Amino acid sequence: MSEQNLLNLPRVVQDNILSKLSIKEQLNFRLVCKGAKSWIDGNGHRLAKNIPATIMNDLKNVTFTKFVQQKEQPIHLMTKIYLENETSDLFEDNLKTKFLQLHSNPITTLRLKRYFLNGRNESQQIFLEGFSNLRHFEVEEILIASSGNTDERTKVPRNFRNLETLKLGRVIIYQETTGHIFTEDIDISPDDHDICLKYVWNLIDSCVQLMYLCVPGVTRRPIDSCYEETRILSYINVRAEAEAPLSFNSNTFIMTVDLHRFSGCIRHLPHILLCGGMLMIKFLNVNSIVFNSGFPNIMEGPRNDYIHSLVSTLIVDPPIYFVQKITITASLMPLEYIVGRQHNAPSLFPNLLEIDIILDIGFDPEVNGASYSQDPNGTDEVICIPHVDQLLRFFFPRNRVYANCHSLSIIFLDPIHRYQRRATPANLTCLPNIISCLRELRNLSISGWNGTNVETYLMLWQGFPKLQKLTIDRCPTLNPKCFIGGNGNSRNISNFQFFQELEFLELIGLEAMPDMDTESRMWSNIQERFDLEPFNLLTKNGCSPRTAVWIRRHVPDEPIVVKEFTRVTRSAVRAGTGNATTGNKRVKLN
Amino acid sequence: MALVRVISSDGAAFLVSQRLAKRSGKLKTEIETFRKSSDNSEAQPEIRIVTIRAEILRLVLQWLQQHQNDPVLPANQNEQDGRGDAEMGQSQWDRDFLAPMDLGIVMELILAANHLEVKGLLDITCKLVESKITGRTVDEIRTAFKLKSDFKGNEEEQTRLENRWCVEN
């Protein structure tokens, strides 16, 4: 038997061997040869090459000290970290060098909550330059000290030249001496605005090898205009000139620009699209409002493959063969609106792979438009969203199939109170249509659903038998009954068992789902019965309290019959409510 | 006693009781399929295993013979009480059974146990492989599994740097 057999064993056998090795032994085995390294790294759910980022909370100037001094057995190799920093104090931590020495090498992805672009940022710069293999950098907020700073104090880390991904968040001006953040635009002087423009584009221009650039949505805030379209066009031109010798006559895109919600000012957007397309730039999240602005030919002709995905609900006329993703948005935001025409939507997007449905605050087709109150205790302001159901029925007509579409995300979003989804309707009346159109669905994500009707969940479980990955994010009414219940299907089994191919279940934002006590006996029973194995590789010390992930290794042999009694023990105080119930009680599950 | 004829890839036939053979998930399925498709209930099933040679098949059957009275482990049984399946099922006989085998034979036995769905045997053979990795230096592992380093340039050093957080912590 040749030695290759060790590295080419069937997956189930690899998993069996790997599960018996400690992390240290696995890492040691990676040093044997390339095959051993890829064998270990390839079993991602054990050694976590593909796990979510390690979250590091801001503990001021002892953030890295605490992390380095932890004595527990490490759980996984960190390749992605997310620093939830409020200030730059954590970069003053004395043990940050030790942290970098131990951990920086495998880290390729870094996300900061706040990035201080100018001012006293030397420590931050030293820290960032310590990541020699950094390829992906993301910031939620860019903080720029108001005027009065000198250019000499503003440097972009040298390793940013090697970045492949740059995702930038909104810009915030602050007073460096006091830390005061200017929240009102009237406080921002023209000089400050110029500084923002200069520093933000100095950062972007320094990243000369970007393959992916994402800038935030443009709002009416003047400060956001530092991401103005003309500068993006300029950057695209520079990159295209630099890459032209390599990409001339090539069909390979030189980079991707994510225009997420870039619809505030569309003066130059059609021009950017046309030029970028010719210069081999691929665009994500193009707002389809652009097609209603006097540039109808943008999607026609032999070359329209540079638009990867469309945002908004404006319907375009010609079939768009290359669009792989659409985001259907029903929103109160004035810049997005709904236009429905009598077209056959599936034939418009024949190669669609992903669909996102984003529904701003609740709609309820049964009452002919939704009501929403800005005041949680009153009804002083009511806004109606008409036609949402019609819109979804347009995209998901009966007897149409998006044959290639494998991914669906349904997001209920409150643009005013982002984490309050109280206005979501009791059920989605168009859900049967959506299910019938997406028979090949593999990935489903549902976020912010606050409907009280368990039947909606049961319908989802039953409707997508080929699902492999399920993510539920901050759905306050989710409860164990949604997993055990059946709705009278002919096999009289739990609807969740229709997921014969489910491999990955993720619950995000557990703090917002009070009935999902993952420590409870009931949930333990569910895990056991569906053969869900906890996947605790999110942080160095174990599972994040905010997220829980399970992987499924086997499909249960016996169907789980509904209409049975299960003993439930609750002894923990429910988070947020302060209510406690103790002892045993019998609960009928359906 | 009902018998079944199990034939290896190189043509060697082993006559074993159906009760013993059914401790293999694969053989159990084959026997039941044969029963359903056969008109003669007395007919002796014949199962050809084209991926397992005689020497390995004999070892599998020998192991099944030794463990014929053990409780059957479910295929998806997870580790419980901090003990792996291997520790729960491994006996002195198992250790003596595996001791003289070189790793090449063990690899074949792993593949055979996996193919024939004999979970207990799969567990103890995987445990043996794990023991050849645990506590060994990189060079010792290379020697044991006859693997050669094919890292180029500073790739091995780079991998070592990636491991540093765990090794030095």
TrEMBL record, chain A:
SMART domains: FBOX (SM00256). Residues 3-51 form the F-box domain. This is F-box domain-containing protein. InterPro entries: F-box_dom. It comes from the Eukaryota. PROSITE patterns: FBOX.
From TrEMBL, chain B:
Pathway: Protein modification; protein ubiquitination. Residues 119-166 form the SKP1 component dimerisation domain. The keyword Transport does not apply. Residues 4-69 form the SKP1 component POZ domain. It comes from the Eukaryota. InterPro entries: SKP1, SKP1-like, SKP1-like_dim_sf, SKP1/BTB/POZ_sf, Skp1_comp_dimer, Skp1_comp_POZ. Pfam families: Skp1, Skp1_POZ. Keywords: Ubl conjugation pathway. Belongs to the SKP1 family. This is S-phase kinase-associated protein 1.
